[in-house]
Structures are given as C-alpha cells and as structure tokens.
Amino acid sequence: MIGRLSGRVALITGAARGMGAADTRLFVAEGAHVVLADVLDVEGQQLARDLDCRKGRALYVHLDVTQAADWEKAVAAAEDTFGHLDILINNAGILNMAGVEATTEPEWQRIIDVNQKGVWLGMKAALPAMRRAGGGSIVNISSIYGLIGSGGAAAYHSTKGAIRILTKTAAAEFAPSNIRVNSIHPGLITTPMVAPIPTDFHKQIISMGCIKREGRPEEVAYGVLFLASDESSYITGSELVIDGGYTAL
Ligand code: NAD
Predict the structure, then answer these.
(1) Which domains does the chain have, with CATH numbers?
(2) I want to staple 133 with a disulfide (CB 3.0 to 4.6 A). Which of 25, 32, 84, 108 is the partner?
(3) Among the atoms of ligand 1, which is closest to the Cα of residue 188?
(4) What Å distances lie between residue 51 and 48, 104, 215, 225, CA to CA?
C-alpha cells in the first residue's frame, strides 16, 4: 500500500512521548522514514525499537533543541541514514504554570530557549538539507495560547505567540526554496504535559470548548500529517486550529 508519506523523510522533535510520539507512529504507518528526536533517550529508543517491525524506518537521536550542534547532528543523521530530509516537525516544548509576576528570570529564559529558540534553530538547521532535497514542509507546534491569552503561563504563552509569527516569517523566506511552513494550534490534549495542570483550571478549559473533552494526540497527528504531506501543497504561513472549538466561542 502507498502511504500518504511514502518516500518522505521526517525529523520530529519531542518525539519520545505525547503528541510527538503519536506523530511518529502515524508518519511511519503512512510510509515515512522518521528520525525521532528528544532528550528522553530511554523512551525515545524504546519507541524506535517498537517501530522496528516497520523495517528500520525509525531512528532515534538525542537532540536538545536549544543546542545548535545537536541540530546539525540530527539533520546529518537524517541525510546519512535515509538519504534526504523533507519534513521537520518542531514539536518539542515545555510548560510552566506561572503568571507574569510569579515567573522568575531563569524560568522565563528556559521556556524561551526550548519553545522559541528551539523552533528557530530547527528551521535554520533543516533549511540547507531541505534545499538539497528540492523542497519540504515544516510544521511548528504552537497552541491555542499562541492565538488568545489566558492567565497563569506567561512565558509559555509568549513563546507560542512568537512561534505563530515566526512561522509566517519563515513561510515568506522559504517559499522560493519550495519549502512550506505552517503552525498548528492544539487545545487541551491528553499528554504528560497537561497532567500537572490544577483540576479546577482543567475543568474550566474543558467547559469552555464546543466539544467538552480533551483531545487525543492522534487527533492532532492527523493535522500534522496533512500539513506535512503534499495534500497541503498550496498552504503555507497558515494556522491549523485543533481545539474542539475552544477558540470558536
Ligand atoms: P509532552 O511533555 O508529552 O512532550 C514534549 C516532549 O518534548 C517530551 O518528550 C520532552 O522530553 C520533549 N522536550 C522537552 N524539552 C526538550 C528539549 N530541550 N529538546 C528536545 N526535546 C525536548 O508534551 P505534549 O503535550 O506532547 O507537547 C508537544 C507540543 O505540543 C509542545 O510544543 C506543547 O507546548 C504543545 N502543546 C501541547 C498541548 C497539550 O494540551 N498537551 C496543547 C497545545 C500545545
């Protein structure tokens, strides 16, 4: 069977668990070769082993998205192992629940480094390889809190807003190289990231959407797949909201 990503090579960050792991499983099932990258080496290697039945189409690499040298190695691993790089999913991210007043300077910097600088470094590192491949697709994972505000996570929300505009900037810059860049804005999705969210706040978020439940990682992965594939060939600089209607109300 020909998959929706047959012949494509993807690099997915934060792939050891949560939404990145769901993207990885779906991409491999749809015929892609995937370099799955994370700082959680044990979990990442386990996922790569689980996917081994797919005839060596998944390779785990250690990649801290804040480190330019790690990015160079991950992109090289994609080209050396699978021949080229066509797709980058900038999914890695961290959350801290602290408002403007409560956020400390080191914590602010840590969130900016992982969530915002990491996306910039990733696009910069992937660009030459995608040019060599003749084009590509980049999907940056933002959030509903890259579209609207909410109290309690000042640094996180700042980074998600920044990703939205960085995506559009890169879309303009990369279009002549046949590389599309889009952002995805998930609502509340069941992953380890949201486990520490206080119960009251969690219930409040659920009650404010049209569909009154959390989303599943797979429900975001299908959006990532669409934007990564040629099915979205005329879409760039765009925002795909996957939030059960939270921002519709
Ligand atoms: P998660 O915590 O389950 O997964 C995030 C992954 O990123 C982890 O595997 C983690 O190890 C990895 N990571 C963290 N720092 C890293 C670094 N420096 N380098 C490389 N990898 C690193 O969370 P998730 O919910 O799957 O989140 C995935 C993305 O979706 C994040 O960007 C997050 O901000 C975004 N998001 C999540 C939700 C949600 O409700 N879960 C909603 C909107 C957006």
Answers:
(1) 9-240 (3.40.50.720)
(2) 84
(3) 40
(4) 5, 40, 24, 18
